[in-house]
Amino acid sequence: MALGAAHQALESHPSRDVSLGGLPVTRLLPIRDRRMVGPWCFLDRFGPLSFSAERPMDVAPHPHIGLQTVTWLLDGEVRHEDSLGSEAIGRPGGVNVMTAGRGIAHAEETPAANSGKLNGAQLWVALPEASRAMAPAFEAVARVPRVEVPGAVIQVFAGGLAGGTAPARFPTPLVGADVEVHRGEAVTLPLDPAYEHAVLVLSGDCAAEGEGLEARRLYYLGTRRSALGLRSAGGGRLLLIGGPPFPEPILMWWNFVARTPEEIAAARADWEARRRFGEVSAYRGARLEAPALARFARANPVS
Ligand code: MN
Question: Does the pLDDT of residue 64 top 60, yes or no?
Fold first, then answer.
């Protein structure tokens, strides 16, 4: 059924723990040996956590170039403010997509009025050469398509899957979805065999192609799979990302996705000199300073 790929073992990658302005997050992309999955070049998982007086997320204004940010929440709220003047509160079931293009600045914080919960993921999509100098944009989608199939509910926040098509605009072909497999049930997801895919357990338990998936690990599925069989004993949620192998080498440094060290140095200099990115006027407090320009991550291997 899966074009000769149904029985290939899943490639499992450990995550690493990092801190985002004091908030502990689990980084699943980029990691050693796996820099991208399709155009997806960054995946941070935060929560689940409960809080009372404090506001656990407070990421001061910082710049981006050459990418789109995608914020997907399972619980709680994140307030987004950017240098275009956009202000939006992201909630479960919806998605915020910010297109940096040639340059944007934004801040993300737990709003003063909140549920006391935070649980979600932030991902970045690398923009291809033809689009990476585009004008910045912000899009808030209140409710993404929700597809009910036997055994599961699929929420499609990027691209298309199982008959659902996400409304947010991406210049690259891709898929991003949250798949909730019901307790004691199974589902077979149709996949585009031209895409490479990866999955991450978000909650509960889940097995893929008969293999039990561990929490906090990214499972890379490769290309040439036209279906993915999932099963859950007690009920489980899974993040699925994918896209055609990205055809260009990218260079990532701090919050920038570029092609050359010179571009990154120029973006850093523009942020420090308060050029290009604009001000996040809705945020109260100091902005983030760029780190010293010490060393670049190596470019991703071109597939
Ligand atoms: Mn950001």
Answer: yes
Domain assignment of residue 184, yes or no: yes
pLDDT digits (tens, 9 = 90+) for 68-116: 999 999 999 999 999 999 999 999 999 999 999 999 999 999 999 999 9
Ligand 1 centroid – CA 91 distance (Å): 17
Distance between Cα 53 and ligand 1 center (Å)? 24
- Please give the distance, rounded to the nearest whole angstrom, from the Cα atom of residue 105 to the centre of ligand 1: 8
Q: Which DSSP state fits 31?
A: B
Q: Answer whether 113's CB lies under 8 Å from 150's CB.
A: no
Report CA(64)–ligand 1 centroid distance (Å): 7
Range of the domain at 158: 11-243
In a domain, 201, yes or no: yes
Buried b / exposed e along 39-52 (16+ C-beta atoms within 10 A): bbbbbbbbbeeebe
**259-273 residue pLDDT tens:** 999 999 999 999 999
CB contact set of 233 (below 8 Å; sequence gap of 6+):
183, 184, 205
233 CA to centre of ligand 1 in angstroms: 36
What is the total count of domains within the chain? 1
